[in-house]
Model the fold of this input.
Amino acid sequence: MDFEAARIKMVENQIRTTDVTAHSVLEAFLAVPRESFVPADKVRLAYIDEDLEIAPGRYIMEPSPLAKLLQLAHIGKEDVVLEIGCGCGYTAALLSLLSGSVVTVESDEELAAQATQTLSELGYDNVAVVTGPLEAGYAAEAPYDIIFVNGAIEDVPEALIGQLREGGKLIAVVGYGNAARAIVHVRSQDAYSKSDYFNAALKPLPGFRRAAEFVF
Done:
């Protein structure tokens, strides 16, 4: 299979056609070998235009919404990025090309080990993979310019907002199914503003379910 041709087709047919025009984002998708991050038995499916399961209940995001969210983040070459939900490491590789450095958190130790190995073998040396609960982020390296949540969540924890630097942005898809929306939170002193952008039906990340409320 000609993976380079498949990458070009992905960018031209799946990403450009959904209003992704940021040159840096398009170049990142052309540069990162998506096939290197998927399980061996799914390599031939690496460039399909849908979510691809990489472990039970965990997915590599469909290219189009991922590209739209990265464009929405407006990541700069000096930015320090925290990714929530490393998974296989594919999004971390994209972020590494867009930013100055990336810390990516993964709760599944096996996925974290696989991502660390793949990222190292491919030379993405400005990425650090750490393990821990996704909803806690990684306060040890805070504050961050960008926090990128790699999957749908039900609620944005205050712990994550608190790890943004002044003027920093958190990009997340909040809600599940077709009603979920891409939201950007911007920190300003001890408060934050929130802007709503577009619908994005993503697979959920573990650990972000809102606590059940008792009704009397």
Summary: The chain has a mean pLDDT of 93.
